[in-house]
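Known limitations

Structure tokens in this collection are predictions and should be treated as such. Users comparing against experimental data should check residue numbering before alignment. To illustrate the layout, the record for FAD dependent oxidoreductase is reproduced below. The input appears on top and the generated tokens appear beneath it.
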Amino acid sequence: MNDRYDVVIAGAGPAGGQCARDLATRGYDVVVLETESEDGFPRQSNKSTAGTFPSMMASFGIPDDVVMQYTDSVVLESPTDHYVREQPGAVLEFADFKRFLVEDSRDDGAEYRFGARVTGPIMENGEIVGVEYNGDEEVYGDVVIDATGPSAPLAKKLGVSELERKNHAVGIEYELEGIDIDRPGFADLRDAMMLRLDHEIAPGGYSWIFHTGADTAKVGLCYIQNGYHQRYAKDGYTIDDYLSHWLETDPRFREAERIEGKQHRGSAHIQMPGAMHTDRFMAIGDTVPTVDPLWGEGINKCMQSGRMAAAAVDSCLKHGDLEPTAENLEVYETLWHREVAPNMQKRLLMTKLLYLAENERYDQLMADLGRLDDNTLAKANRGDIGAILRLLEAGDLPMLATFARREIGLDTLRSLF
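Generated tokens:
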């Protein structure tokens, strides 16, 4: 095998796979190191709900044959109410999707080494020049990219990763059959992706039902292990206990059964990113982190970060006379903040405010959304202050005061307005 490439990527998830696709298409020699064996890939890393939208499918040329179910609407649920917004989407078969990224980039010349566990960077004169894997194997590149997610074996050793345990989110999902998808008293979830705000089920987080056809769906929940979760958590409950409680108490699951082999667990960090690059190195995807803080969208964000990193590589290497120094790779962070996650700080604060609310306020939120025009939620989701204010009421003042004491300093408050 070759031991020198233009780019070495650690991790074959959506961020690493898309970065490899873009670089291989541009004609660069790229190798991807993936911990899992190729037989059965992805098995351990099949962790996403894989809900996405047509814009992602079109932007990245994702084929229909990795889609489990196209959806027509997004449903928001509270303990006693719901809101429906017409919004086309797609629920992917995540394993097929990841395999597609591998094969498509291979077709353009990318090399993959499976069963290659990255252990650390190879350094020369204070700069990363390659990667050690499987203990004693080495590969070298002009640029190295860490797309391994929270494990971040390269980013951490280079002092780039600033992931904090207090911002660590965990999730669990089952695939079920026999669900009552259109049960009286609940929203019709046929061809829908549903997100539920209910502290009894997911304290300080949310749960979901993503329809995957007939009477089947992906069903799960997640929360950030911080004070917002602890405020509503039950003593001694694990994330498995919360999911079991939901399945046992929601009548839509009365006849449902788990599909064998279809259980997924995942984790990510929900926080502002720190540094994302240094000399000859970039961190992408959930290594940054990149997951949308409000609704947990990960696939599109990760792939966008991979694309921005590929553009940064190209800006340095295409002429052959521009070294990939930290200064010259700065374009990656500029593009990330502009294209991948604009208004990140506002969205993080919106997330914390949302999870601070009581269940009764979630019921009122559904009623508020129902009386406002459809654009209000979309604008609020983008961090539009005017739209956010239209979703607030006089009764929210005590909650806002608590939120301000906990989270907002004067400088942050000024930046929002």
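For this record: The mean pLDDT is 91. Residues 66-92+166-269 form a domain with the D-Amino Acid Oxidase; Chain A, domain 2 fold (CATH 3.30.9.10). Please report discrepancies through the issue tracker.
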